[in-house]
Write a structure and sequence with these properties.
207 residues; mainly alpha; Arc Repressor Mutant, subunit A; Tetracycline Repressor, domain 2; 2 domains; 12 helices
Length: 207
């Protein structure tokens, strides 16, 4: 751990994660290197190793931040009042995911590799953020669907979270992929992040 105030450490930590996030807007996980990330910070590549030992640790920190932002969004959700509250919940949670495209993109990458190449303390911090998002969805269900039972809640949690791993590849389709689908003779219904998440939540809630 580098010497200096906790505030300076956090500032530099955030600067590195911000650089990774910026690169990830136009590049893939495998394309981004520690050198590329360093070029977007105010310090040298060797300095980055004072904060992160691997590229995967930086991505895991970005992943954790995305889960934390999503959790904050979920915590703000409340029923609109009137109508079908289960449908209301499906719409609301779908909109939160629509705003978290980076989280969904990260979910479609090789999380196993990120976790295997990260130190335990970083992995624990990530799992805490992941666990908080599960609790936030669980609490949302209680607010929106007071009639929902414990087993139905858990069934939703452990069906919906695996579902969202596959949303990004289905929603973010390139022109080249569309052309290949056409040439392969596959008739595919292209849907947005919101549409996929809404449909999935509705099916799981039976509405």
């Amino acid at each position: 751990m580098p010497k200096g105030s906790p505030e300076l450490t956090q500032v530099r930590h955030d600067e590195i994660v911000d650089a990774c996030a910026k690169l990830y807007e136009t590049m893939g996980f495998n394309e981004i290197t520690m050198k590329e990330i360093a070029n977007f910070t105010s310090f040298t590549r060797p300095s980055i190793y004072n904060y992160f030992q691997t590229k995967e640790e930086i991505f895991l920190a970005l992943f954790r931040r995305e889960y934390e932002i999503w959790t904050e969004d979920l915590d703000r959700l409340n029923p609109s009042g009137g109508g079908n509250t289960r449908l209301d919940f499906a719409e609301s949670i779908a909109h939160t995911l629509e705003r978290r495209e980076r989280l969904l993109k990260l979910l479609s990458t090789n999380l196993y590799e990120m976790e295997q190449s990260s130190r335990t303390e970083n992995l624990v911090s990530f799992k805490v953020a992941y666990g908080a998002s599960i609790d936030a969805v669980r609490n949302c269900l209680k607010r929106f669907c007071p009639d929902i039972g414990v087993q139905e809640t858990e069934d939703f949690i452990f069906s919906f979270f695996p579902l969202i791993y596959g949303i990004y590849p289905y929603a973010a389709v390139t022109e080249q992929q569309k052309e290949a689908m056409e040439k392969a003779g596959i008739h595919y219904q292209y849907m947005s992040i919101y549409e996929i998440a809404f449909l999935g939540a509705r099916k799981l809630l039976g509405v």
